[in-house]
Amino acid sequence: MISNSLFRHWDRIQIDAVKKLKSVRNYLWINTGIYLGLFFIEYSLSKVSHSQMLFADALNNLSGIFSTGLLMTGIYIASKTRDDDLLGAPISVAEQKSLGPRIQQSRFQFENIYTLISGVLMIAIALNIDYSGFKSILSHHQVVPNSLGAMGAIISFALLLVSAFLTKHGQKKLNDATLDAAAKDIFSDVLTSLVAFITICGSILIKQSWLDGVTSILLGFYILYSGLSILKKSSLDLVGYFDPKLEQSYRETIEGFPEVQRVIFIRARYDGNLIMLDVVIQIDKRMTVTDIYKLSQLITNIMQQRFGIVETNVMVYPSNLA
């Protein structure tokens, strides 16, 4: 009976999480389409306008395509709930019928894996931008960009601004961390395109090509920093790291329940974008099974409402054993 209850509880979590993932994927499809269109526009115009900065911005948008595409692939794998394999590896017949927490949580981890790969690609693109920028500055055949470069940058600025607002709207609607990060990333690209526009206009006005090259190098360093940050975060998520300050907040909240004498053990972890929590608490040995069950349910509900934790596993120790 308890086992069936646990699986029903997980089924509810799984259905909600998968539904959310599919909605997130729809927003990311829009972003991918915008990034793809902008890459071709800016890349083409960078060649005819001789703008190194616009070329760098085009590659920045290419990194957006890779990162969003990889993230969508990870989300697609994470959102599959009925299958006979996990990325080609067979799943037992028993787990195919239920597909409980173990398999689905494994699927959720693919979101982190593909995010890590996108960070590596961003680093590679950043190094290419910086190489091209330095090569342009050291070249004796530098050309001042023309107005076509400025036009490409302002088109990128306008379309990315629309994309950022759409993604932020989706984030507020779904309360999703992936869309929140995507919205921030797109907004940084909006500012990048604005800087590209200002830089190209400045180069045209002062008739100096070095400004275009120097700014493209700075953009390359910015993309490099972003890629390293993504690589660091996704790596930490994969190895089970969790912010100790946030974990301490969880501990203090649970210790605030009158029935909880103390928290013996607590561990939070990420499964993809989902936060899971394991906690061991000490209680009065005179509490009944019914009271313990009600307390566990109350802790689970409060942690979900206050912190968005989708699963809180509560283990209890009576005061005479702890």
TrEMBL record:
It is a multi-pass membrane protein. GO terms for molecular function: monoatomic cation transmembrane transporter activity. Belongs to the cation diffusion facilitator (CDF) transporter (TC 2.A.4) family. Its main location: membrane. SUPFAM superfamilies: Cation efflux protein cytoplasmic domain-like, Cation efflux protein transmembrane domain-like. It is found in: Membrane. This is Uncharacterized protein. It comes from the Bacteria. One of its GO terms (cellular component) is membrane. Keywords: Membrane, Transmembrane, Transmembrane helix, Transport. InterPro entries: Cation_efflux, Cation_efflux_CTD, Cation_efflux_CTD_sf, Cation_efflux_TM, Cation_efflux_TMD_sf, CDF_Transporter. Signal peptide: none annotated. Residues 245-314 form the Cation efflux protein cytoplasmic domain. The chain crosses the membrane at residues 27-46, 58-78, 112-129, 149-166, 186-207, 213-231. The keyword Transport applies. Residues 109-239 form the Cation efflux protein transmembrane domain. The keyword Transmembrane applies.
